[in-house]
Prior knowledge:
Blueprint: E1 8-12, E2 15-19, H1 27-47, E3 77-79, E4 82-84, E5 89-92, E6 95-98, H2 104-125
Antiparallel strand pairs: 1-2, 3-4, 5-6
Amino acid sequence: MIRSHGLRNHSYADDSQVYGSCRPENAATLRVAMLNCIADVNSWMASNQLKLNPQKTEFMWCSTSGMSHHIDHVPPFVIDGSVVSPVTTVKLLGVHMDSELTMTPHVSRTVSTCFYQLRRLKGAGNHC
């Protein structure tokens, strides 16, 4: 069903990702394809006694900072009556990705977690 809209998908347990690509000036066309696809998926889910949760739905436009002006004017998604605005980072299988695909949020979180664990180890060593 998703591929019939010219899109691709990945599914992991109860988490599904739908994605597509286009030139920045065609972002509005991609948005329409996504909305049509999500509506079809939502209908299929309802017919199988499942529910799409718009509150847990995220979307992110990926582009370079120089090309982002092409997608700034694209309106947010409205899914089942809920407005879903674009985010700048998402978590995919434990990896934090940003809209420019720099991996900066993931590296920052990993470094922060490592320093936290080192501080804990240092603190535990003082109590021995």
